[in-house]
Design a protein that fits this description.
Largest sheet: 6 strands, antiparallel
Strand order of the largest sheet: 1-2-6-7-8-5
Oligomer: single chain
Structural class: alpha+beta
Number of helices: 4
Strand content: 35-45%
Order of helices and strands: HHEEEEHEEEEH
Shape: globular
Helix content: 25-40%
Length: about 160
Amino acid sequence: MEPTQNVATLIALYNQINNYGRTNGMELNLTKPGEVVYTMKVREDHLSSPGTCHGGVLAGLMDAALGAAALSLAFTASELVSTVEFKINYLLPVRLHDHLLARGHVEHSGKTLIVASADIYCATREIVVARGLGTFNRYPADKRDFHELLFPKEE
């Protein structure tokens, strides 16, 4: 199946249907297929203790950055991805009101799997706060209900 839209258009559409990202104040930007930047600001509802961000929030941002990097590359072949596994190293605590920037990029793209890595930077303090690596299954977009949303038939 040939892609019917460019990757930037598909990422924009993905942003519209990604309730998780929107709920958590995350903004996805495409650098190029296989490279993305996710940003977010740590809010009160992201805290696990006074002033400190819950690790699950960082894990969610990490999975999103890794997955979006893989997805942006998969889009070039009219494919989607799903997370097989990922790991995260928490390097430093993240605080209330920190501005986070997660840069994800594809390390390897095979026939059935994509491997991506990402760093989460705290722009407020100019430091890396977490590193991650993930593996993603790639599959034809027509196996999912939103295939027509992402790849509409040309009339």
